Amino acid sequence: MTLDARAEILLKTLIERYIAEGQPVGSRTLARQAGLDLSSATVRNVMSDLEEMGLVRSPHTSAGRVPTERGYRVFVDTLLKVKPLNVNELHKLEKELHADHDPQHLIENASHMLSEVCKLAGIVMMPRREEQLAFRHIDFVNLSGRRVLVILVTQDGQVHNRIIQAERDYSPAELVQSANYFNETYSGTSMSDVKRALLQEIQQASDDMQRIMQVAVSMAREALASEEQTDELVVSGESNLMDFPELGDVRKLRKLFDAFNAKRDLLHLLDQSMRGPGVKIFIGQESGYDVLADCSVVTAPYSADGRIVGTLGVIGPTRMSYEQVISIVDITARLLGGALSSSERPGRLESSGR
């Protein structure tokens, strides 16, 4: 989407004003705040154009305008200037995320610091011990009633048995072929990389191979997803969200807090954020979850010894201060990764329940 310089300045000013005050912004206010020599009538015309483009909207209760999800997306992608962390905040994070701390405490401290510094809800996915192991072998065994036993073996010899409900009946030959394909493709690959690969669509020219791949990927994905545990996510500062009027509705808050308690959807969202480096921002419906329709989620993966092992971030209203939050999330991920790389030792991190 291409905007002229005048429209960009007005959209940026409107969003910054709305983030700061949470109130619809009128044309007169924009004309004063934007630093442009424009009449209110000209500003109204530009706002009308932005509204037609779906970047702003007019609430029924006010003559002013507020940004839409699409408007926030344009703002974040093209107009935002990320603010560097101030020295005091940086020192606070460095103190809490020091390599001398126990790994479990580091994770808890990271979640707490994210919520405290951002004044939002802080979330951190625990590193999973199994994520850092390599996949060795998988078998699919037919049981009664379309149930399939999945036998998963990791490189260190651990055996995990999981029963899944298949969508249809599979012949023993199909299961053997599917397991053979999976073993040939992924043996020796880390579990975290296997899981990320299963989230991607795999293309093959051969129809027969495509069918075999679909069976293998479908059942392996379900077996691995079934192992998710709610203790793999640390959440802090949920009560901060009560300070925002747009999230203050009791029903909205109840649904949000239920999501924090259940954690499965949040874990899936954080899993998506592990696919590559860098900060990722989900605005409103972009998360894919109705309960987060009025929220934005800002995440970044963190690494230990050069491998991505988890994701952290914050959840808040769509009118959060992105210019500050992005920097805080990014630096916290870097500090946590550095501390874990120095402090983590085999067997010390016990919170994953493996």
Order of helices and strands: HHHEEHHHEEEEHHHEHHEEEH
Tally of separate helices: 12
First and last CA, distance: 47 Å
Strand order of the largest sheet: 7-3-10-9-8
Mean pLDDT: 83
User: Class by helix and strand content?
Assistant: alpha+beta
Question: How helical, in percent, are the residues?
Answer: 40-55%
Low confidence ranges: 345-354
Percent of sequence in beta strands:
15-25%
Report the major sheet. Answer: 5 strands, antiparallel
Q: Can you tell me the overall shape?
A: globular
Q: Tally of extended strands? A: 10
Gyration radius (Cα, Å) is: 24 Å
Descriptive account of the structure:
It is a single chain. With 354 residues, the chain is of the alpha+beta class. The chain is 45% helix and 17% strand. It is built from twelve helices and ten strands. It has helices at 5-21, 27-33, 40-52, 69-79, 87-96, 103-118, 172-186, 191-198, 207-225, 250-262, 264-272, 322-343, and strands at 56-57, 66-67, 121-125, 135-142, 147-154, 159-165, 233-236, 280-283, 295-304, 307-317. The strands form three sheets. The chain has a five-stranded antiparallel β-sheet with strand order 7-3-10-9-8, with helices on both faces. It has a three-stranded antiparallel β-sheet with strand order 4-5-6. A hairpin with a 4-residue loop joins strand 5 and strand 6 (159-165). The chain is globular.
